[in-house]
Each structure stands twice: as structure tokens, then as C-alpha cells.
Design a protein that fits this description.
The protein is mainly alpha-helical. The chain is 72% helix and 0% strand. It contains 25 helices and no strands. It is globular, with a radius of gyration of 24 Å. Keywords: Membrane, Transmembrane, Transmembrane helix. This is ABC transporter permease.
Amino acid sequence: MTTAAAEIESGLGTLAGTGKILRFQLRRSRMFLFWWIAGIAGFTWMVVPVIADQYTTEAERAGFAATMSSPAMLSMSGPAEYVHAYAESVGALFAHRMILWTCAMTAVMFVLLVTRLTRADEETSRSEVIRSLPIGRRADLAAALLVSAGAAVVLGGLLALAATGLDGGDGTSPLLFGAVHTAVGLVFAGLTAVAAQLSENASTATGYGLAALGASVLFAGAGNAEGNWATWLSPIGWSQLTFVYTPEQRWWPLLVSVLVAVAAVLVAFTLVAHRDFGQGMFAARRGRAEAKPGLRSAGALTLRLTRGLIWTGAITLLLLGMAYGSVLGGADDFADGLSAAQKEILDRGGADLKLSFATTFISINAIVAALFGVLVVGRGRKEETVGRGELVAAGPVSRLGWPGTYLPAALFAATVTNILGGLGLAAVGAGGDGGLFGKIMTGTLVQLPAIWVLVAFVFAAFAWLPRAGWLRWLAWTWTLLVVYFGGLLKLPEWAKAVSPFDHLGNYPAEDFSTAALVVLTVIAAALAAFAYAGLRRRNLSFN
């Protein structure tokens, strides 16, 4: 062992080279950090004035508070303490509606960031090149966590600036609003660092991190609905329990976040020193000596590799649909406390506000279902870049067989998950009304052509511009913005028209256009053909 190696392996020497790796990781992650931070902070900046303009009087806020007190609504927003402060605090209303969603997006950002800088680099052998230098075995993990900590602080600071000027709370309320997001980022960075040591590939580490986020949202929702201890099992719940912008505002729940983040980091540093490089603490299961007959084709292999995403999407959409169904059942009571401006946002053109609610929930289900189609396409790109696809492409397989089979797999994932979301919404929300059940399911099927267009566009981007992975996220994010926040932000018509979902006709609140469905289906088919033409012409990229 050389002197340099001996120094690296002793004491603080395991962190040798952290500064150099930190600069390298900051450089290669700068666009990732910029777009994620700009997206979360920019969206918050846009929503702040809209919320302030919509709820200008205490009477309007008090009326809206009455509609937000049901367990179903509290589970999808936050603790009842915020609702009690609506009348005297616009900030409390804003925080109540925003913290769950912005914290969830923050958690996704840090799960992806830490996985990208740790386990994904090992999987692609980038870390192997770095570790051939005199670098400590904990240096890359330490640098990744330092990048995450810096990003969390910057994001929290920008969100604090965005919340400045909201009525209610005290002078420290904007700082606390930013701090709750910093805390969530630190917690999920630490938890993902542990996941990266347990698993041997990036997709599994990401899955562990997102599973932790799902459990966090679930426990927060259950605890908020019943007002019980379950909220304390959730990192997002700890942020909500700060009661920012309310008379009960408090900072100390963030101490729990800090302690958990520190504990997770210590566990990750311990594990990284006790596992083999490139391997996880959980050993991979040994596979069969020979594949099953059903796996002896590229399409079957693609479905096998993406089945985890498909199952996750199916369960997620079913539960999401059922959650929205519970809200739909109380839509009439909810509508009584809405102002004219709020009804305008929810109104999809139908006289029955319950049908307008159903239309909104159907659209949200469709956007989430499309996300799983986008993720399946992303899995195809990953198989290509890490080199595993090279083993498939080396055999007698056409480009349509691999990676072309990722398009039907993505369409299958998006279609099935959307239908299950509609079933969950109809089963719970229809309340035994067969007519409403049928309308919800028809509305769910109406969304499919728009989903197919979005997925086909994402696959075309993968086929023609494989390095521009940001295109698929831009397309999906813009569609989400149009569907979920288009009315709230009053986007211009031309901006809405970019989204295929804007052309569906808002069924069941309004009649849908059969011609529009046919045109969208033709566009999806044309995009698919364009994508396959691109696959035949470009080189595959194997690292």
C-alpha cells in the first residue's frame, strides 16, 4: 500500500479529495440544480400573488375555511390549525395549500440528485475512474451531500423571498416557510444516501427514496385527517406541524428533521465503508440459469424490466383515484363555501359543479398516469447509456424490437394506470349512482388519446434527441401546469393549446369532441412513426 493510500484509509483521510469532487459534481449538476430550483421557486412566486388576489377579505377566507375542514380535504392539504387561521392570515391559507405539494416536489428533487451523484455514478463506472485517483472512499458521498445541503439552503432562501409580503404571521414566517423546504431536502438527501448504500443499482435506490416519500405523504395525510400522531411519522408532516403563518407558529419540529437527517448521513457514511465498491449491502438475488419461454423476446424483457414501474403506477393511481373519490362525494358541501372566483377556476363548463369536480380529478389522474409512461421511456434511455442494452442489441434484434419496445410498454403503463385511477374515482365518488359511474369511466377513456400523444412525443424525443432528456420533463411539466394550475394562473389560450389535454372537451362537465379524439389519436400514431424513423437512423449510445 502506498503512502497516499495509507493516508486515505486512516481517520479523516477517508474524506480526502472531497473538495475536488465537490467542484466536479457542482459543475456537472449545475443545469439539474438550476432547473429544479427555478421550477419550484418560480412556481411559488407565481402562486403567491394569485392566492392573495383571490382571498382579499376575511369573509371570503372564513367561508373557504368551512369547506376545508373535512377529513378528506385536510388529508390533501394539512393540519386543521391552518384552517382556523384562514380569516386573519392569507399566509396560513397559502401555506396550507402549498406545503404538501412543494415539499413533495422538493423531496423528489433530492432523491434524484443524491442517486445521480452516488449510486448512478457507480453503476456507470464514472466513480471507478474517480476512485482510481488518491480519493477517500467517503469523499464522493460527502461531496454529494454537500451539494445537496447547499441546494437545500438556496431553495429555502428563494422560497422565503417568494413568501415575503403575505399577510399574517410575524417577521420570521417567510424564513420558516423556506426553512421547512430546506429541512425536507436534507432529510430526503440523507435517506437517499442510505438507500444508495443498500441497493446495487440506481433505479432501486430511487425506488427506495420515492417509497419513503410515498409513505411520508400517506402518514401526513392520515394524521392530518384524524388529527393524530401519524403525522409525526412523516418528514413532510414535521414541516406542516410548524404551523407557519398561524398564531401557533413554531420552529422546533424542524429539529426532528435535522436529527433524522444527521442520523441518516451517519448511517450512510458507516455503510459506505463496509460494502464492496459497485455492490449494495443487499445482495442481488441469483437469477435463473435459463430464461423462461416468455422472456425470450425483446418485448417480454422490456415488460419485465419495467414491471416495477407499472405496478407502482397501478397502485398509485388506484389509491389517488379513491382519495379524489372521497372528496368528490362531498363536492356539493364543498361548493357552498366557494367564492365566485373560486367556482370559476373549478368550473369546467357544466351546470353541475360535481361533474366539474369529477372532470378536474379525471384530468389530474391522466397527468399522473402519463408520468409513468414518461418514466418507462426514461428507463429505456438508461438501459442504453449504462450498457445493458448492448447485450440485447448484440443479438438478432431489430431497432423496433430494442429499444423500440419501450414505446408500447410506456403506452401500456400509462393506459392501464389511467383506467385504474378512473375506477378508483368512480367506485368511491359515484356513491352508487350508476350514471355518474359511467360518466367518470367514459371521461377517463376520453383522456387516453392525449396521454398517447404526450408519451409518443416523449419517445420521439428519445429517438431523435436522446441526450435532451430535459425535453420529456419539460413536456410533462408544462402539461401539468396547464391542467392543474391553468385556471388559477390564467394562462393565455395559446399556451394552453400546446397541451394535448386542452383539446379534449372537459367531459363529463361538457360534451367531448369525437373529431378531436380522432385527430389526437392520429397525431399520436404519426409521432410514433416519426420516433421509429429516428431509431433507425441514429447510433445507439453504449458506455
